[in-house]
């Protein structure tokens, strides 16, 4: 008997697949891989406030906001956590 897969085919970290299979947040490891860098680099960027997507810290857990990750993947523009390049510092 043939079974159909409910997950869309294609690259594991494509926006279409992420949209279809992720909940409201994803792991730092998966988001880092989707963006093309390692888990260690992802946590390093989070510590420095430079992770390109919105990040939630819930107790000792860190999660990446899926909608933010999708915007970054589709636009190529980062959404830094509280750090904006266009912020007026005067």
Automatic annotation (TrEMBL):
InterPro entries the UniProt entry points to: HTH_17
Domain (Helix-turn-helix) ranges: 27-75
Database matches in Pfam families: HTH_17
Descriptive protein name: Helix-turn-helix domain-containing protein
């Amino acid at each position: 008997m043939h079974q159909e897969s409910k997950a869309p085919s294609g690259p594991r970290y494509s926006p279409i697949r992420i949209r279809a299979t992720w909940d409201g947040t994803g792991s730092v490891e998966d988001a880092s891989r989707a963006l093309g860098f390692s888990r260690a680099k992802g946590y390093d960027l989070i510590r420095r406030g430079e992770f390109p997507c919105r990040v939630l810290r819930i107790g000792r857990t860190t999660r990446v906001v899926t909608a933010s990750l999708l915007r970054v993947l589709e636009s190529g523009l980062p959404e830094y956590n509280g750090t904006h390049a266009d912020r007026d510092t005067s």
